[in-house]
Protein 1
Amino acid sequence: MKTQVVIIGAGPSGLLLGQLLQHAGISNIILERQSPEYVLGRIRAGILESGTVDLLRKAGVSRRMDAEGLVHDGVEFLFNGKRYPIPLKKLSGKSVMVYGQTEVTRDLMAARNEEGGTTFYQTRNVEIHDLQETAARVDFEYHGEKYSVECEYVAGCDGFHGVSRQAIPKEILREYERVYPFGWLGMLSDTPPVNDELIYAHHDRGFVLCSQRSLTRSRYYLQVPLTENVDDWTDDRFWEELRRRLPDTLANKLQTGPSLEKSIAPLRSYVAEPMQYGRLFLVGDAAHIVPPTGAKGLNLAASDVNYLWRILCKVFHEGRTDLIPRYSELALRRVWKGERFSWFMTGLLHEFHDRDGFDQRIQQADREYYLSSEAGQTTIAENYVGLPFEPVE
Ligand code: RFL
Ligand code: PHB
């Protein structure tokens, strides 16, 4: 087989890149380890920045998002029982969209099927070769048979545990990491959200996020120690703990119901540099992970896709191979700002049991400053809705 770009991974990065390349007349094949049902069963991100929304529109997959997604012009913070609404639109000129990663992925899969894009699901043993040669090669197994694809470029969209990052030699790859001493216990339920806007709350018992997927589906998260086991959390225990961490005005409004999904995710900040090596580009979680507190994971994946798609269009249509090494530089500049914001939000809102008195007072002062000053709120707003993309020239 031969194609212009092999994309490893059919998560949001791989599918969105595939769709944009297809529309630009650049042939591509996607290789995915799991089945489509498995990929759609993963409950992950819920908030789209306006730049991500624009990119999904450019990719021609926004019909359902525009009809069903909820535009949020604000977000709320809460600590010491006091609520701080942040008017995102007023302060930054932009809004965010509530539309889940599962739905984005479903729309991208449907578009690819309709347009006849080639995707191999349930592949095994994907191997990347010849990244420094005149053509790269990707080998894989599919239903017990061995296959080989020759291509000009490989997009590693295979998430944190994928194989692509390992194709960069150890002496070239640099890794930066922070691991946090807690995780998020998430619960999805068909209950109306407790508030119109998302609420990020600090409480002495730990952080809480009240999020949503629609007007009838809620997503809540509780900060928990990493030693917690999800099986020890019955629905009743989850609702009870959530109520304890919310002020009475909200706790009394909370509508409870059976969970559709519950899981614990550890929190991590991680960046791999460079994001390009020979004919390979790393995209999304394959190159970087953020703690979910800033809602940046999926949005940074879309940011990488934006830069790579623009660069590959110029490479294939205008012969601009000089842009290839620019990908890493452009993508990383925005990635590090997303990393900084996610780290900052995590530090601002969580309960750190290992912090001494001084650090706790600084955290308190930070919360008071950022949430009560318009300048502080504007900083949060412009990062939350997403920083602008740089032009690719
Ligand atoms: P994905 O979504 O992980 O997709 C990678 C795809 O590659 C496949 N794959 C392979 N395919 C072929 N061969 C191999 N060797 C392969 N190895 C892996 C995988 O099966 C998968 O289908 O990465 P992508 O596309 O870069 O998208 C990134 C986003 O998914 C991610 O940033 C966010 O979901 C992060 N994230 C969250 N972000 C938020 O903004 N808000 C959240 O609430 C939120 N919750 C989460 C999350 C990430 C989680 N993970 C990864 C542990 C919750 C969890 C549990
Ligand atoms: C979610 O709805 O899953 C969600 C929303 C905002 C975040 C993280 C997760 O910051």
Protein 2
Amino acid sequence: MSENALQTLGEFIIDKQDDFQYSTGEFSRLLSAIRLASKVVNRDVNKAGIADIVGHAGMTNIQGEQQQKLDVLANDIFITALSQREVVCGIASEESDDFIDIKCGPNGHLSKYVVLIDPLDGSSNIDVNVSVGTIFSIYRRVTEPGTPVQLEDFLQKGVDQVAAGYVVYGSSTMIVYTTGNGVNGFTLDPSLGTYYLSHPNMRFPEKGKIYSINEGNYSKFPQGVKNYLKYCQMMEGDRPYTSRYIGSLVSDFHRNMIKGGIYIYPSYANAPTGKLRLLYECNPMAFLAEQAGGKASDGFNRIMELEPTELHQRTPFFCGNTEMVEKAEEFMRIDVVKD
Ligand code: P6P
């Protein structure tokens, strides 16, 4: 099918605007701001290799600017795109210690949305030309409009997300997001700077046969995870499963959603609550997983029901095909019962 027969992301956002009660178009403009920022980050990620080479020589990038770490650069790009359009009243980012109030004071604007973002997840992979991603999570503020945002606007359960999604800067660049009505994927045509609906209504396959985990930490895993890995590797029925781990959450999740699989980042000895952040990594990916027919838990509880207490809190993360996550949870429960 020729490109111009496919729906663009811009057309899709407008078509779906009516999904939102009392939609004022603010949410559509918010998604458009994310779309724009993703194109700028995509451009910078795709030339990172060149910038690095030039950067190493003269510590400047190809435009002669002082080279910034790409994740700080991505953070600036998303914060600028979101704060210049009066579409959010607050932003929390992995790259910023505290949340940022976007002119919501007495003379500020009355935007009702806050965004939590991991601007460039897996950025250490850029040096070796491996896919990286941006992850975003969107809520309505819970405090009085027209007043500065407060921490409680960000410490909301995943079930209260208005929307969530990711950008994967891979062999092609895609935006994948949900507003609670399924998951849709859009592929960027870089020659036109336009995203096209390439993956409508994305869903996990019925069966999953891929497990994604950093087995280098095996000796430190809880016994339940060790037993689940042994189950995956056993010659029985449709097993052994295949091990695939890119070390980039967005890429591992994206492949597992298309081919079927489970991603696990468990707690372990020197990381009692795991590595991944609840608010801007696990909750948005959990929303997508559930909307695509999958499941996300901390090994025992639904991720989106966890009550946040801190902006950058971590959680163990089991996410993917429902059947695979439930089998892993079974092994985690046995482990607890045995103790
Ligand atoms: P490890 C990247 O830093 C990240 O947050 C995820 O994208 C990725 O899945 C994980 O950490 C990799 O962590 O400890 O296996 O290198």
